[in-house]
Amino acid sequence: MDRKDRAAWFDEALGLMRRLWSEDRVTHRGERFHIEDVALRPKPVQQPIEVWLGGQAPSELRRVGRLGDGWLPSFCTVDDVATGWAAVTAAAEAQGRAIDPEHLGTLVTYSYADIPDRVRELLALRRPDLDPSDVIPIGLDALRTRLVELTSVGASKFVVVPLEEPADWTAELAAVMDALGDLQN
Asked: What is the mean pLDDT of the chain?
C-alpha cells in the first residue's frame, strides 16, 4: 500500500471513528470500510471528542487542517512548530474551518545525558541536517528553555517525556514539576 492509499484509509477511518464516538448506531459503506448497524459503548464522556494529530510532512499538516482538532508534533524545532502551525491554520481556513489557537502543542523528549548514538542515528534518518540537541533538550533547565521558546510561537500544551526510563518515576515527576510547574497558567 502506498502513502496515498494509507492516507485515504486514515481519512476514512477518522471520519468513521468520529461517527462511532457520537452516534447511537452507525451504518457506513465507504471505499475502505463497511459496517452495518454498529453501536459503540460506552461513548466517550467528552462530546465531541477531540482528535489531535501529529506529523510534520506537508501532507500531514494539510490533514491536521482538514480533519484535526489540534496539532501535537514531536521531535521538532521551534521553527518547525511556527512554520507547521501556519500551514495547519492555512489548510483549515481553506476548508472553511478554524482550529482553536490553544490546540497547538508539542511532545518534547528530554534527556539528562548526551543523546545516545542510536537515537542520533534514527533522527539522522528522519532529518539528516538536524542537530539532535535542537529537538532533545539536555537537562531540565534546557527543557524549560525549550518550552518557553515554544510558547513564544503559540504552543500551549506539552507532553514531556524522558528519553531514558527514570529509576524512580515519583522523583522524576517531582523534579519536572519543580522545574516547570510555574509555567502553567
From this structure: 94
